[in-house]
């Protein structure tokens, strides 16, 4: 975020405040950019303040819900896992996308509360399915890079799992590459502690971040999710094709499972299957939905898996 004297302010305080506002705008638009301050931002910044204060009350006002999206093995259509995705519906703002509110939550220090809430909901749901004799299935929870900086994550996860009597094999944490650019050693240690508890680790949005492959063998990973941006380019194959092939080969040699994100069409599905990838998470095989919608899918997936076994 930048601001310049004299157009954007006459005092150091004003210039800093406006540069900060500009930086905020970059963060809420998906980060990784540069933005110069302009007057409209003062208005947007008011909107942001409004968003912040509403987000702060979202949990107590019951405005949040966890949706679940299946990861499907397309060879037998069985569901291999679910990803928990947070949804926020505010009475005045309507549905707010996580791409919009997660960066805000990270910025104002609310992410820890939100993620703990998601973790509790997920474990509660697993517990309900267990009680209803529905074979529980691993559920992945997204962990913000901000949250990963605190060292107590493994303890927190264990406490919640124990509280809801859930075996750690049913929980997976999804992290992104940006989590470890600053200090890979600390993050690797933290992830190892988590993995030692039996919870598995997935690397989300792979290929969009810092693309230094040398870090991969240093991290205790069980799964790697190829980002939807590669799939979106299909059928304009070319370079994405080669990159996906290389990622799959590399993951196989490191004994890491591969999931392809964002598959929307049959054409894309055929294409990724030809590359040797059979686990898909995308609108084609199932959109994110509330637990009640997912439940019957789990039951029929159980039958399919039994039939094919
Ligand atoms: P993500 O973790 O990469 O999640 C996948 C996103 O892709 C989800 O968006 C999902 O709805 C969307 N998606 C799945 N299949 C398709 C498809 O075929 N086509 C298209 N166009 N989209 C597809 P969503 O739910 O809007 O979440 C966006 C991001 O917000 C997530 O990306 C994740 O980074 C973040 N997020 C969501 N819930 C949480 C949470 O509880 N904690 C944290 N830290 N981040 C979260
Ligand atoms: Mg994810
Ligand atoms: Mg992703």
Question: Could you characterize what this model shows?
Answer:
It contains 11 helices and 10 strands. It has an 8-stranded mixed barrel, surrounded by 4 helices. By secondary structure, it is of the alpha/beta class. The N and C termini lie far apart (56 Å). It has helices spanning 12-28, 40-56, 98-107, 111-131, 145-148, 153-163, 184-196, 228-232, 239-253, 266-274, 291-308, and strands at residues 64-73, 78-90, 94-96, 139-142, 171-176, 200-206, 223-226, 257-261, 279-281, 289-290. Helix 1 packs across helix 2 (40-56) and helix 4 (111-131) runs parallel beside helix 6 (153-163). The structure holds ligand C2E and magnesium ion (2 copies). Ligand C2E binds at residues 69, 85-86, 97-99, 102, 115, 118, 142, 144, 174, 204-205, 228, 262-264, 281-283, 288. One magnesium ion binds next to loops.
Question: How are the SSEs placed, and which strands pair?
Answer:
Blueprint: H1 12-28, H2 40-56, E1 64-73, E2 78-90, E3 94-96, H3 98-107, H4 111-131, E4 139-142, H5 145-148, H6 153-163, E5 171-176, H7 184-196, E6 200-206, E7 223-226, H8 228-232, H9 239-253, E8 257-261, H10 266-274, E9 279-281, E10 289-290, H11 291-308
Parallel strand pairs: 2-4, 4-5, 5-6, 6-7, 7-8, 8-9
Antiparallel strand pairs: 1-2, 1-9, 1-10, 2-3
Helix pairs in contact: 1-2, 4-6, 6-7
Bound molecules: ligand C2E and magnesium ion (2 copies).
Ligand C2E binds at residues 69, 85-86, 97-99, 102, 115, 118, 142, 144, 174, 204-205, 228, 262-264, 281-283, 288.
